[in-house]
Amino acid sequence: MKSYQILFLVIASALLPYGLGCSLDPERRLNKAIDRYVAKAPDAERDLADTVMEYISIDSIEGENLESNGKIIYSIEENEIEVVYPVEISMTFPGGSEIRQIDMSEAYFAMHDGLKFCIFGEDGGLLREETVGDDKNPVRALVIDGSDLIYYKNSHLYRYRINDMTTSTLIDETFPPPYLSYYTVQLYAINDRLCILAGIAGSYYFSIVNPSAGSIDLKNLKMSSSKHHAGADAIFYIAGSSGNWELIRFSRGAKNKKTIRKFSDIKDIELTATGCLWENSDGLWAAEYGKEETRVPFTYIIAGKYKGRILLQYGKTYHFIQMDKMLGALAVLKDKASGLWDAE
Prior knowledge:
Layout: H1 2-15, H2 20-23, H3 26-38, H4 44-56, E1 57-62, E2 67-68, E3 73-77, E4 80-85, E5 89-92, E6 101-104, E7 108-112, E8 116-121, E9 126-131, E10 139-145, E11 148-153, E12 156-161, E13 166-169, E14 184-190, E15 193-200, E16 203-210, E17 215-223, E18 228-230, E19 234-241, E20 244-251, E21 257-263, E22 268-271, E23 275-280, E24 283-288, E25 294-296, E26 301-306, E27 309-314, E28 317-321, H5 323-336
Antiparallel strand pairs: 1-28, 2-3, 3-4, 4-5, 6-7, 7-8, 8-9, 10-11, 11-12, 12-13, 14-15, 15-16, 16-17, 18-19, 19-20, 20-21, 22-23, 23-24, 24-25, 26-27, 27-28
């Protein structure tokens, strides 16, 4: 019996590089798909699109009409919300009101409808509901900060302590948008800092505060799009106006700005720490900051961001993209499968 077991292990080891080893090697699968495309095998271009997506993804989820706020991927239908990532849970906002925003921490979910916010436990059970807004001064954004909830109303930031159910002003400074008639607000955290983006339709103010110290790091950086990337060292954002857009890098330390790229046509864009993806009239494009752009030759669709990673929708699947791998895959395709761009 032992001799048969040894023989089996020897044969399995010999076959590993050609069988299981190949199936586990993403680069080998990519090169194999490129070879099939070059050889004009049946359905080779579709298979290549599938293989490239597998190569550049770290994870994926199935779904339709999904949204991302950067921390949660979900779908909303009026007062019903279904969270699909990073956990799967469904919740109902009491009173039948339409949910406007949601946030999540390890212990809580929180959401609001403009008039009140509700706090749910990690199991989806309702813990608190507080009416703090009205039609004239609605709640416009919220974010969970440890055992507290920070929310934005009438250009002010407030801290609600979940355990003792008390509210106080977070900071005396106000953070109004460029125009007060109608606007949206985003609140999110970078490490121990709170970011505020307020505005609408090509005119936004971006600010950063230190909640624990009650101080301001940055006030009213003007942006022309809500799409941006804020990192520890730099903020990447869009400035300018229709037909004359600029991608700007703002250094948080030196407080200076540098134009990285100019655009005459943008339909959608997502920015990361190292590069960006954007859609224009000619399709989807990718570029590392400061480098030449490449058109993406497949029918991938920008679908938002999650924790700094761009989401691409492909069919009914949402993929979490590794930007460096995507840029690397495009370079390989340009070199070995240039026929993908022959129609340009």
